[in-house]
Amino acid sequence: MNKGQLVEAVAGQLGSRTAAEDAVDAVLDVMVRAVVAGEAVQVTGFGTLESVQRAGRYARNPQTGERVRVKKTTVPRFRAGQGFKDMVSGTKQLPKSGPAVAKAPKGSLTPSKTVAATPTGTKAAAKRSAAAPAVTAKKTTASKAVAARKATAPATKKTAAVSRKTAPAVGKKTAAAAKRSTRRTTA
Amino acid sequence: MNKGQLVEAVAGQLGSRTAAEDAVDAVLDVMVRAVVAGEAVQVTGFGTLESVQRAGRYARNPQTGERVRVKKTTVPRFRAGQGFKDMVSGTKQLPKSGPAVAKAPKGSLTPSKTVAATPTGTKAAAKRSAAAPAVTAKKTTASKAVAARKATAPATKKTAAVSRKTAPAVGKKTAAAAKRSTRRTTA
DNA sequence: TCGTCATGAACAAGGGACAGCTGGTGGAAG
DNA sequence: CTTCCACCAGCTGTCCCTTGTTCATGACGA
């Protein structure tokens, strides 16, 4: 579907073609500006469009095979929401009457699971912490990680969204482990 | 920025809040419907929103470390366009007068490079094929790859967008190589 | 306008998935 | 018509995705 076709489809809903052009331009422009400004655009049921920092790396020239250094950059990223993914995967078909975004019927999705999880949530935490070390007999690191997460959980509120990965180690060897730890501490 | 703020920002451009609500609803709804229908929404300068089939695989439960089978599914995917990426990365700042999407000034960007590439495009193909083996003395695979691509180039026009990955090999060992070859042949 | 609830994010470990390098060409948009 | 953008190839390093839980916030009914 082209941009022109998109405008045409929107015109089919708005009724006017001129309004559709303005609508498409305005919506996309606002989203782009917000992302450029570093703000994440989050629409329930549709998805989140945000900007994330990508660490520098070494890529490869397809023709010559030579290693080229790619410096760290910021790229926009879109994460589809649950409803969108469900509709695309076919789990839930899209409603034809109302808009396909931000429509949350009262109890259309897994009502039993939700009501069951809510009251048992308090003691579920204890169950998880107890079960983890038992199964993780082969890996002791997991238990420590869980404990650390519980401790840091109240400290981390929302983080800054942008500024998660700040590993400048491009010329280093791997820096993967360092980046992991960096993410936790949120340097 | 949530949906309400998005509507407000769009209202700032359209002038009316009601029109902004309809605009946001219509645009998102149209995009969602198109993607659900299997059609890719491609807006030049903004990005492409499409649905891709993800082959089944084996993931891992982070708590227990157990391998869990993930059956194949279809998920929406967004790929940002060049202009969008440039603006986010800071290479090109967004224009404040016009919309940030699909704005192509006549010759504002890298005029010398463009005019040089356009007329030489026809014979540039021969130049590339000749230059590649010369530089690729250390890697012969690159030259073969280029030749193969040239042969398949006229055959592949647009492909089906959706239906690229159809490797059902879930219980196999890796299936990565097989999937690669599948992509070329477009089974 | 307030209350309730669904929805999204984070955290962890590890491996599969995938973005993207370069450069030419087709298509698209103005 | 002109000018630009997206795509595509093999190969890598980066990143996302998986489950399950809790917290926080947004969305919606009354």
TrEMBL record, chains A, B:
GO biological process terms, semicolon-separated: chromosome condensation
Report residue spans for region: Disordered: 88-187
Single annotated GO MF: structural constituent of chromatin
The UniProt regions of compositional bias labelled Low complexity, in chain numbering, are: 113-179
- Please give the SMART domains that the UniProt record associates with this protein: BHL (SM00411)
According to the UniProt record, one GO cellular component term is: cytosol
**Mind listing the UniProt keywords for this protein, alphabetically?**
DNA condensation, DNA-binding
- Output the Pfam families linked to this UniProt entry: Bac_DNA_binding
Q: What's the family? A: Belongs to the bacterial histone-like protein family.
Q: What is this protein called?
A: DNA-binding protein
